[in-house]
Write a structure and sequence with these properties.
The structure holds 2 protein chains of 2 kinds.
Chain A lengths: L1 H19 L1 H24 L6 H31 L2 H6 L5 H30 L8 H28 L5 H5 L1 H7 L11 H8 L2 H14 L4 H32 L6
Helix pairs in contact in A: 1-5, 2-3, 2-5, 3-5, 3-6, 5-6, 6-10, 6-11, 10-11
Chain B lengths: L1 H17 L5 H26 L4 H11 L2 H17 L3 H6 L4 H30 L9 H28 L4 H14 L11 H9 L3 H11 L8 H32 L6
Classes of the chains: A mainly alpha, B mainly alpha.
Chain lengths: 256, 261
């Protein structure tokens, strides 16, 4: 019960903090709208109007990843700058239970991205919002957000040890968009890329979301996404433990 | 003489002190790999949308990524003075403001050129982009003019760093809006009329158009009008930046807000 309370309270606190940060609001709201508009005109120029809902949906999903990456990347650095990383690691609860709700809060903000791009497409471009399987769509979004939060945990954990690791968050936006097939189908990418894609939970989460929205069976992809999310938690737990110990040994926790 | 020192030495010192991404641990992922993946992403998106060929997206994005230095770098160069609490002392000096701010832009033009060149290299090695060898010198000139023009725009964005605490609130949308308005990924003709007008006043738009012609084998002379337009638009952005910087400096003094972080 204490663990649940800790996770929920940390998630809620981080969510509220994120919503007040201008840069976070830009990443969650404005950037996805720019990409939604770009995708709309690109697909329209390609004379494939059937793909316009696909474009709006994809831009929203891209936004969820951007905001997760930004939030997960920033979580530990903000703690460093605010001088609370050491006390948090020294506190009795395992640090993974502090970091996970923070990265989960970042991916939760991504719901704004998805909602805003869908509404933008509907209001500005007149894209009809007819979802093939609404229940499967909603469940898929929820599972994908948890999976992204856990992927953020794995990535964010490296920041405990390496101060420069946040350069990764400047770099990883486009590669993960490519690898997960968020807008470009994986069939267009070289074969070897598929093996990397299959190991990423968002690949399956996006497939499930797309099946829920546009038609198809969402449940198998959802199962894979859940399975990989569980694996990320185990990996994240181990990595946080190892990195935390090394950072204590090297006395680098308070370095900014 | 003093203005020349402020321009060259001051600009270089500012770059070394405030451009946070210059160590290899930051520079390689942020300034080289990130832009490279941007080129790849949009080239594949182009293949999927059946709009244009790889060359269209390689040229557009390879030139646009110069904005990593031109917009983000300049924002750091001006916004960074606020974070490091050196903005007020800097503006208390009698240094020539034109030399002061243009000097900060110069290293970033060079940096933007390098980022852009790497984007072209990635396109050449990994995508279906094989321009004639003779196109390299004119393309280099076009990239240089475009990068300089983009840096003028970046100075306008950076000027907001004199007035507002977080300059990245302006730098981020500016970078991404360029992807939409400057014909980087969507042909200008496919955009609504008002967006075409905005795009034609933005930096990079004419440079990218010229670059695409040159990559297809056209001579520099045949695109000289586009290159001159790009240079002229860049000059207008530099002028606007100077006016804005002076205005926000005066505003900052009046409101005593130069030391807010």
């Amino acid at each position: 019960m204490r663990v649940v309370r800790l996770v929920v309270v940390t998630w809620w606190l981080q969510l509220k903090q994120s919503m007040k940060a201008g840069i976070f609001v830009f990443t969650a709201l404005i950037e996805p709208l720019i990409f939604a508009t770009l995708a709309y005109y690109l697909f329209k120029a390609g004379r494939e109007p059937g793909t316009l809902l696909y474009a709006a949906l994809s831009a929203g999903l891209m936004g969820i990843w951007s905001v997760t990456l930004f939030g997960a990347g920033g979580a530990i650095n903000y703690q460093r700058w605010q001088g609370v990383l050491e006390p948090l690691i020294a506190a009795p609860p395992p640090y993974v239970l502090i970091l996970f709700p923070q990265t989960l809060a970042a991916s939760t903000v991504g719901v704004y991205s998805l909602t805003s791009t869908l509404l933008w497409g509907w209001i500005v471009f007149g894209i009809p919002l007819h979802f093939a399987h609404p229940l499967a769509f909603v469940i898929s979004v929820a599972v994908t957000i948890v999976a992204l939060g856990l992927l953020g945990l794995v990535i964010g954990s490296s920041f405990i040890l390496y101060r420069e690791a946040n350069a990764l968050s400047n770099m990883l936006e486009f590669p993960v968009w490519i690898l997960t097939g968020v807008i470009v189908p994986l069939s267009l990418l070289p074969g070897w890329v598929h093996y990397l894609s299959w190991g990423l939970a968002p690949t399956w989460g996006y497939r499930a979301i797309r099946a829920g929205a546009l038609g198809g069976n969402a449940w198998p992809a959802l199962g894979y996404a859940l399975l990989l999310a569980a694996a990320y938690f185990v990996i994240g737990h181990g990595v946080v433990h190892v990195f935390e110990r090394r950072a204590r040994e090297k006395a680098t926790l308070s370095l900014v | 003489m003093s203005s020349l020192r402020v321009f060259f030495i001051g600009g270089l010192l500012s770059y070394r002190a405030l451009f946070s991404w210059q160590s290899p641990a930051y520079y390689i992922p942020t300034m080289l790999l990130g832009p490279a993946f941007q080129v790849l992403f949009f080239a594949y998106l182009g293949r999927f949308s059946h709009v244009e060929d790889d060359a269209f997206f390689v040229v557009g994005n390879a030139i646009q990524v110069s904005a990593m230095a031109g917009v983000f770098g300049v924002s750091m160069a001006i916004g960074g003075e606020r974070w490091t609490q050196t903005l007020a002392p800097l503006l208390a000096t009698p240094a020539n403001r034109l030399a002061l701010f243009l000097g900060r832009a110069l290293p970033l033009i060079v940096n933007g050129f390098i980022v852009s060149a790497f984007g072209f290299l990635v396109g050449r090695l990994l995508l279906n982009y094989h321009p004639p060898l003779s196109s390299v010198p004119p393309m280099a000139l076009i990239v240089l003019v475009s990068t300089a023009s983009c840096t003028g725009f970046g100075l306008v964005v950076g000027a907001f760093g004199l007035r507002f605490r977080d300059v990245f609130i302006f730098a981020n949308p500016a970078y991404f809006l360029m992807l939409l308005f400057c014909g980087v990924n969507v042909p200008l003709s496919a955009l609504p009329h008002w967006m075409q007008i905005v795009g034609s006043c933005m930096p990079l738009t004419h440079g990218i158009a010229a670059g695409r012609h040159v990559a297809a084998g056209a001579s520099l002379a045949s695109v000289s009008t586009l290159v001159w337009k790009e240079a002229l638009i860049g000059a207008c952005w530099f002028l606007s930046a100077y006016v804005l910087l002076r205005f926000f400096e005066a505003e900052g003094r009046r409101r005593a807000s130069l030391e807010f972080v």
